[in-house]
Amino acid sequence: MNTMTLWHLTGWEFAALACAALLVGFSKTAVSGANTVSLAIFAAILPARASTGVLLPILIAGDVLAVLTYRRHAHWPTLWRLFPAVAAGVLAGTVFLIWADDSMVRTSIGAILLLMAGVTVWRRRRAAADEGPDSVATRSGRLKARSYGVLGGFTTMVANAGGPVMSLYLLSAGFRKLGFLGTSAFFFLIVNVTKVPFSAGLGLIDGTSLLLDAALVLFVVPGALLGKWAVDRINQRLFEQLVIAATVVGGLQLLLR
Prior knowledge:
mainly alpha; globular
C-alpha cells in the first residue's frame, strides 16, 4: 500500500501538498510566515488534527535549511528573552489539543489564520506610520516579548501558525532582513523540535504521518533554494499582499467547511 492510498489522497491532492511543502521551504529562507498558506492547504486536504502532525517534520526540515543559510545572523539575547513565554504558550496549546476534537481544531486553525492575516495588515500599517521600533531591553519591550511569546507558542502548537506572530514581533523590534531571517530560523528550529514529543504524545505524529512526510520533504529543498535566490529580488509588498489574500481565503474555507 503506497502513501497516497494510505491517506486516501488523489493525485491532485498530493500535488497540492507537494506545492505546500515547497512553499514551506521558500518561506523559511525568504518570507517568514508565508507558510500560513501551506497550513491552510494541509488542513483542507487532511483531517485538521492530523495535518498539524504531518506538517511539523516538514517545517523542521525547512528550519534546518534556514539555519544553515542564515546561522551567522541570529540574535541570541532576543531568543533567550522569548523562550520562557513561548514554552508557556506551547503548554497551553497542548492542553487545548488534548480535549479539542477535529472540528474544533479546524475552526481554530481557520480563526487563527484570519487573526494572523489581520495582524499582518496591522503590522504593515504601523510600519507605514514610521514609528520607531521598541527596544527589547526596555520594560515595554520585555512585556511585548512575553505577550508575543505566549501567543506565538500557542498558535505554533495548535496550528503551526506562529510565523506571522514572530514576524510581527521581530519587525517591531527593528530587525533588518538578515537578522530577522537568522533569528527566526533558530527560533522556529528550537521551538518546532521541542514540539515533537508533545505532538507524538497526542498521537499527531506516528508511522503513518512520517510516511507521508518522507514523500513530501523532498519538495522543501527546492523551495528553500528558490527562497535563497529570491530573498534579495522579491517584491516584498506584492508578495505579502498575495500571502494575506491566500491566508484569508484559506481561513474562510476552513471556517465554512
